[in-house]
Amino acid sequence: MRLGNDRNVIGRHVVTTPQEITVSEEQAIDIGRKKGLKDPLSGAPVLVGGIICWRVVWQHTPTEQDYDNQTVYGFDVQCTKGEVIGEHRYIRPTPAPPPPIRTGQITSIIEKLGFEGVEDGAMIQVNVMNSVDETFSVVKTFGRTVVHEGKIENADLTLWIDRDIILNALESEDVVSYLQNNATSRNVIVELHKSMVLLQKKGYMSLYERVKK
Known about the structure:
Elements: E1 2-3, E2 9-11, H1 25-34, E3 41-48, E4 51-58, H2 64-69, E5 72-78, E6 84-89, H3 103-112, E7 123-129, E8 134-141, E9 144-149, E10 157-162, H4 163-171, H5 175-182, E11 188-192, H6 196-201, H7 204-212
Helix pairs in contact: 3-4, 4-5
């Protein structure tokens, strides 16, 4: 059995009452045909809420129009009385989300932009645009670039960068040249949180100018 949030039964996967199969697969297919299904058709036994049925379906690859119209492609035909107790329509599948950006990819692109030139203690927040709310913290500590998932407090600047720009830049032969040629005010945004004087003292200006060139 399958229970809903209120603990009531919303689905059964066992036969709950005595049932006799008096409708053949061929008869069920003919019922589906009379209900408007197109050939070729096939049938298979299924349990629907504890009731034995023939699931009659149209053997067809759905088109965009089928998804737009939510075309009926199948019926559940009760095996005892031949009654149609359910229908099935083409529903456009939800596209799978893109794979997440990894910390190693952020580390690579930040290092190629020249982050090794900033002073220890420098902190950047990287927000990935057109993605699944991905945020990374980047810290220069003991001469190393350390990247973690999540927000960072008191960041010196926030780098907003489009997901596709990250991936395409990393696949290019020269990350900096790719960004200079393809970065726009829509896909790469630098938001400063500290004064220009302080950022310059920390060594940010060369990195900032490379991104914004």
